[in-house]
Amino acid sequence: MKQILYKFTRTKIFWPILALAVLLILNLLLIPGFFSIEIKDGHLFGSLIDILNRVVPLLIISIGMTIVIAKEGIDISVGSVLAISGALAASIMESSSVWVALIAAIGIGIVCGLWNGMLVSVFDIQPMVATLILLIVGRGIAQLITGGQILTIDNKIYDYIGSGFLLGLPFPIFIGLAVFLILLYMKKRTALGLFIESIGNNMTASKFAGIQPKRIILIGYAICGVCAAIAGIIVSANVSSADANNAGLWIELDAILAVVIGGTSMRGGRYFLSGTVVGALFIQSLTTTIYSVGINPQIIMVVKAIAVIIVCLFQSEKFRLAFLQFGKKKVPLQ
Amino acid sequence: MKYFKFNMKENHIFILATMMLIILMYGYGSISFTGFASTQVFLNLFIDNAYLIIVATGMAFVIITGGIDLSVGAFVAFISMVSASLLQLGLNAYLVILISLLIGIAFGAFQGYLISQFDLHPWIVTLAGMFLARGASFLISTDSIVITNETYSSLSQFKLYLFGDSYISIGVIIAIIVVAVSLYMAKFTKFGRNVYAIGGNVGSAKLMGLPVKKTTIWVYIFSSFCSALGGIVFTLYMLSGYGLHLMGMEMDAIAACVIGGILLTGGFGYLIGPTLGVLSMGIIQTIIMFQGTLSSWWTKIAIGVLLLLFIVLQRLVVMRRGKRDAIQLEKQADTLEVEPKVASGEYK
Q1: Transmembrane stretches, by residue range (chain B) (predicted)?
Q2: Which is it for strands B160-161 and A165-166: parallel, antiparallel or unpaired?
Q3: Residue B315 and residue A141: Cβ atoms within 8 Å?
Q4: Which residue in the set A140, A266, A296 is minimally distant from B300, CB to CB?
């Protein structure tokens, strides 16, 4: 038993889970009724359900981002892609059916992903720079689609995606779960997952092993683009409108934080989808906690920043060394 | 005749391309719109973007070391908030400026320490710094604070007249000083050489015994100091403090650096570049303003297209350099191959 526990503390997922657990315990002490779940009209209500519901867009984007970061890449354009897909879906729904709109929204996600992937893999441009272009242009394109206005959406099927209930739980939770399971299956059971990890670890070695890194990178960015598009659909469906300016603003930063908190290294290599899920849950729980404690919501950013610095410090080997040896014999950091 | 041959150094391609672009766009503007070619319109480019020039120049040092500073936009807003609230309390204006600069230095030292000492990724640390600065400015107040201080008003109304009627503001003077100082630092000081060495290859820099950690910390201090200075200039320009000022400005600063020919991989770039980048972005904005019928989001699209062009150009130059090196290596390999053959012939 002790052995298993010790092993568990060595795994990457230990720190994010610990952070989440500490946060939840804090909630248990501070907020009465945080863990209570009640049933109204056959639907479940409660803070925990709320967290699960709200986290979905961030979660889906973070999962896509994990795939990209696994190859030492980064995609900072996801927020703009989210805005574009929401805007496109809303504008198409004005004239044709909801299914066309959904397909078009996901299609634009693939196109944006392929564009980023093409710049990164074919032209060999640094990922951050390549995606910076779409980050800046994307919101302009989204505004072009909406004509600079906030489009309102009035469609029952589309509304159901954002705020419907299935089996007593909000529908977005199921979308998030589906995306997570599909990508987890891809990672564990398909060649693509293996290839992505191998490219992240050592590009040259994988090339000699007969993997075509360029194609894999292209697919990785396309997956990230689709994830961003799905999140865009959920976000716009949830508020029944598409806002080119503010939809998904700063979500790319939250997503990167979720990935890093989850234990995936920014330098590529092994990636942890479940860690990312925990990271996203951590960020959303923090947000909900601050709202329910009744602190001014603007403070959220300060708390987020401090939490992130602490979590990252504990992930850093050097800091842990310094922390453990605090007060003992002084060993200079190298 | 040989001496007059146009011999362009590869390193200058980016700067020349950006300058060419500025001249082309400015020429297009002057031909298409009446009143575009006046001196004041040109000087307004500097007046409106002085804070961005200062911030982008500070950021350029960070990028040359291979890092990034995402906290700049939020920090400018934070400084505007701090100075506005301190002035509201009735503090002396110059003391407020001094406090702002000191906060900048402390903030940069904190970020640099975390990055260099614990090997944290600069993206994450400065991201946290961005959240911290934005959140902290909302802690001070969630509303916009108008500045009524006399010293600040007189400073903001200060005009230095050049060529008759046209003038520049105090912000432009500060920006010119910052650019001049950083040009000097990059070219003629030990610090500048260390910065380029670290950006070129951290491993070799360490092996050479260069103070990598110290330089990294100083680079972030300089960047935050520039943000604080930019914040003061921006506060003078707006005469108000607000936590939502300049959302997404860090991306503008990065774009200015890229357009100005500073490679985001680090180790290369001239410190005049960010200024040129800011100018070309400013000209796009001015053209769209003069055009009148185009909406403001076209600015973003135009800047994005420009960014794409420059990134592809950077890529082409780097690729050409790589090819040339490869050819040289091949030549060396050929000469190396010949010798063993002779040797082996002797021994037969």
Answers
A1: 12-31, 51-79, 91-114, 120-140, 160-186, 217-239, 251-272, 297-318
A2: unpaired
A3: no
A4: A140
- Number of structural domains (chain B) is 1
Which residue is listed with tokens 């105090």? Answer: B170
Mean pLDDT of chain A: 83
Range of the domain at B103: 2-344
Q: Give contacts of B134 with chain A, Cβ < 8 Å.
A: 301
Helix (H) or strand (E) holding B67, with range, is none
Chain B CB contacts of A253 under 8 Å are 127, 130-131
Find all residues with CB under 8 Å of B124, minimum gap 6, and list them: A256, A257, A260, A266, A308, A312
CA distance B125 to chain A (A): 7
Quick count: other Cβ atoms within 10 Å of Cβ B43?
A: 17
How many angstroms separate the CA atoms of A73 and B319, rounded?
Answer: 20
ipTM rounded to 2 decimals: 0.74
Query: What digits encode the pLDDT tens for the residues B58-102?
Result: 999 999 998 889 899 999 999 999 999 999 888 888 999 999 999
pTM of the predicted model, to two decimals?
0.81
Q: CATH code at B223?
A: 1.10.3470
What is the three-state SS of B117-160? Answer: HHCCCHHHHHHHHHHHHHHHHHHHCCCCEECCCHHHHHHHHCCE
Among A316, A312, A271, CA closest to A63: A271
Closest residue on chain A to B296 (Cα): A140
